[in-house]
Amino acid sequence: MNPRTLERANLVNFTRNAAKAFADGKVTGFSPEQNAAMSTALFAEADALQDDNDKAVELLAKYHSQIESAQVRRLTILKMLTEDKFAMRGVNAAADQYDAVGFDPPADPASRIKPKTPSKLAATGLSNGVNKLKYKGNNISGRVTYQIEANMGDGWVMVDSTTKQTYEHRGVKPGQRYEYRVRSKGTRGQVSAWSNKAAVYENEKSEPPA
Q1: Is beta strand 130-136 parallel, antiparallel or unpaired with respect to 119-125?
Q2: How far from the centroid of its chain's Cα atoms is residue 162's Cα?
Q3: Could you give the C-alpha distances from 124 to 128, 162, 172, 174, 193, in angstroms and in order?
Q4: How far apart are the C-alpha atoms of 116 and 146, rounded to whole Å?
Q5: pLDDT digits (tens, 9 = 90+) for 155-170
Q6: CA atoms of 13 and 79, how far apart (whole Å)
Q7: How many CB atoms lie within 10 A of CB 142?
Q8: What is the rounded distance in angstroms from the CA atom of residue 172 to the CA atom of residue 145?
């Protein structure tokens, strides 16, 4: 067995077995004095390693216990701070009061991005039963979706929603008049006003307003 591969506790046992073998004269090539000296030295080092290893194991156990305790304490403090900040909102604390505590003030609702109204809506009717829409979104990409409604003579109905600034309305009836409008919708449900309207008959094009 290669003692270099052993963990500390196993190395202690290995060393004591070796020391006992020397003490018992298992190696006949040495004199009794040499066997005794090697045995004594090995026993002493094995005892010292056992003591050091016991202390290391004890310290490691305390370390893990302390880390766990600190983590629990951290979560408790974070919960308390969250509750305190929420309570400050309940009493309408001013921004400088949040700064005094060290909190970031709550976002001002008025500063949130509101969906802007799309513009320059244009519709083109194709002979394959598709009406193509194009418009200028006027919003930051990824912040809103565009709701598309169509009026085919019976009032406005939702056709679809998209994040793009183009849309293809498929399956339309040739020769029927379609009128379209678009609005933007934010992530919190806010909606813009409707865009200009664009109407199209099959194979006709409705240009956006100047």
Answers
A1: antiparallel
A2: 25
A3: 12, 18, 12, 13, 23
A4: 10
A5: 999 999 999 999 999 9
A6: 49
A7: 8
A8: 23
Angle between the N-to-C axes of helices 8-23 and 32-90, in degrees from 0 to 180, rounded to the nearest 10: 170
The tokens of 143 are what?
């912040």
For residue 208, give both structure tokens: 């956006």
> What token pair was written down for 87?
């309570």
Query: 208, 198 in Cβ contact below 8 A?
Result: yes
| Cβ-contact 118, 195 below 8 angstroms | yes
Structure tokens of 94? Answer: 């001013």
pLDDT tens digits, one per residue of 62-80 = 999 999 999 999 999 999 9
Alpha helices per DSSP H over 91-175? 95-101
Cα separation, 190 vs 113, in Å, equals 10
> 184 φ, ψ to 5°?
-105, 150
For the chain, list the domains and their CATH numbers: 3-86 (no CATH), 110-206 (2.60.40.10)
CB 146 within 8 Å of CB 110: no
- pTM for the predicted model, two decimal places: 0.47
* Edge-to-edge order in the sheet of strand 198-200: 156-162, 144-151, 178-186, 198-200
